[in-house]
Design the sequence.
């Protein structure tokens, strides 16, 4: 079946404009934008004024419009639009990860009740076709882990600050100017956006509907000069990574943390606005997906793919939902990490580690590298002047082989840290 789609489009910003242009170049799609609704009446537009409306009901109440494409930057207004559209039996495409993640269960219920498709490939890793792959190709029992760089603007900022010595502020400004950053940049830099995406990935990969706040996260906004210099001197890069993996007991461990990555690691080469995901299965071993993770056309291409899939009534089946997984306790997940903290806290911090490998202290600040569990890390990071960068995760076998004594300063960050 190849049905004609009449589209009501909400939002003509970075992604909406991209979609508009991409659709003009895809006449074979049999999809036409009938109405565009935006917010600000006084904004200068690239299209003529008569092409815009400001009343959402002009789309929602139009029986001719069978497809709503929601591309706005306000998650609560977006939820109201999506909910009303689904209730009216219209198929919906969205790129709004915050809205989808925060209302995941309600959106599942709406899809079930009104029997309409709701697709959101662009919400996770923009141009990488990951959700449909997780839905269609990967069987629940075969997946061990999914990990990746899922936020384009933080990867852009980290690339510029580490490899090109740009200041954090300038790199963020560039990411905003290029249309990579959210309207509220703390959503990206604070790791919230990566957490929303991980929540969506977990639902499709492992069938668990977590609340975003159940996923431990730290962004890149606390990373300071000390962590950057450590990376440069050791030829490492820092990547903000989202992880979900089954531990030895089959329990699901999840978190979003900045991570030191070695030059031998595939993620090391993933720079600028690119995203990457590594999926590990029991038999297929590892597979690596890479592609642009933000920006007008790459994100629009995923929206376009969803629109195209609606022509043959594609919908997510959510076959893995309600799988019998338990989520691991934070105290059972062990990590090796570099923790920066004020020098005055060095003795107290050291006691939180199961093993300390390195310890450095200057007049103002200190760092400790060692093994600690996620529950302890969460507690420690409640104080804002502390920052953590992951080095590795530990298996049960790694834990059994831990040795105790540590090296009192293997590396110095220079005069006073
Ligand atoms: N940018 C990316 O690279 C990217 C990547 C993946 C996903 N996304 C997601 O895609 C969505 C759109 O992002 P964007 O970067 O295109 O945002 P944007 O450039 O800030 O554009 C937002 C658009 O939404 C419109 N809008 C806001 N509130 C509205 C409302 N209540 N009713 C109607 N229109 C409203 C704005 O109208 P005015 O034009 O009148 O201001 C504007 O056209 C977000 O959910 C974002 O998370 C973005």
Sequence:
């Amino acid at each position: 079946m190849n049905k004609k789609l009449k589209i009501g489009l909400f939002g003509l910003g970075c992604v909406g404009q991209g979609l508009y242009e991409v659709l003009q170049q895809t006449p074979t799609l049999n999809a036409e934008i009938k109405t565009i609704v935006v917010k600000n009446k006084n904004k200068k537009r690239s299209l003529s004024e008569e092409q815009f409306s400001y009343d959402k009901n002009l789309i929602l109440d139009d029986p001719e419009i069978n497809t709503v494409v929601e591309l706005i930057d306000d998650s609560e207004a977006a939820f109201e639009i999506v909910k009303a559209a689904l209730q009216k039996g219209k198929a919906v495409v969205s790129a709004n990860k915050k809205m989808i993640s925060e209302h995941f269960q309600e959106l599942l219920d709406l899809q079930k009740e009104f029997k309409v498709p709701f697709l959101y490939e662009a919400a996770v890793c923009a141009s990488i076709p990951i959700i449909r792959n997780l839905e269609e190709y990967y069987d629940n029992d075969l997946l061990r882990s999914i990990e990746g760089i899922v936020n384009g603007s933080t990867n852009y900022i980290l690339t510029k600050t580490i490899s090109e010595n740009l200041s954090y502020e300038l790199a963020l400004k560039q990411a905003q100017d290029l249309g990579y950053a959210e309207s509220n940049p703390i959503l990206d830099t604070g790791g919230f956006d990566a957490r929303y995406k991980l929540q969506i990935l977990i639902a499709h990969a492992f069938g668990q509907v977590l609340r975003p706040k159940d996923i431990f996260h730290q962004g890149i906004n606390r990373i300071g000069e000390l962590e950057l210099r450590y990376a440069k001197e050791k030829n490492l890069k820092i990547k903000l990574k989202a992880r979900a993996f089954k531990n030895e007991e089959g329990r699901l461990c999840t978190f979003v943390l900045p991570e030191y990555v070695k030059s031998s690691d595939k993620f090391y080469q993933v720079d600028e606005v690119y995203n990457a995901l590594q999926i590990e299965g029991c038999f297929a071993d590892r597979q690596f997906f890479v592609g642009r993770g933000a920006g007008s056309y790459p994100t629009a291409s995923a929206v376009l793919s969803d629109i195209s899939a609606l022509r043959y009534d594609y919908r997510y089946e959510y076959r893995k939902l309600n799988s019998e997984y338990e989520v691991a306790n934070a105290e059972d997940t062990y990590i090796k990490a570099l923790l920066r903290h004020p020098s005055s806290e060095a003795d107290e911090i050291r006691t939180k580690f199961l093993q300390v490998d390195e310890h450095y202290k200057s007049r103002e600040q200190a760092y400790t590298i060692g093994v600690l569990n996620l529950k302890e890390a969460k507690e420690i990071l409640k104080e804002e002047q502390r920052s953590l960068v992951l080095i590795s995760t530990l298996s049960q076998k790694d834990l059994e082989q831990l040795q105790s004594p540590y090296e009192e300063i293997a590396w110095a960050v220079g005069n006073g840290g």
Q: What stands out?
A: The two ends are 65 Å apart (CA to CA).
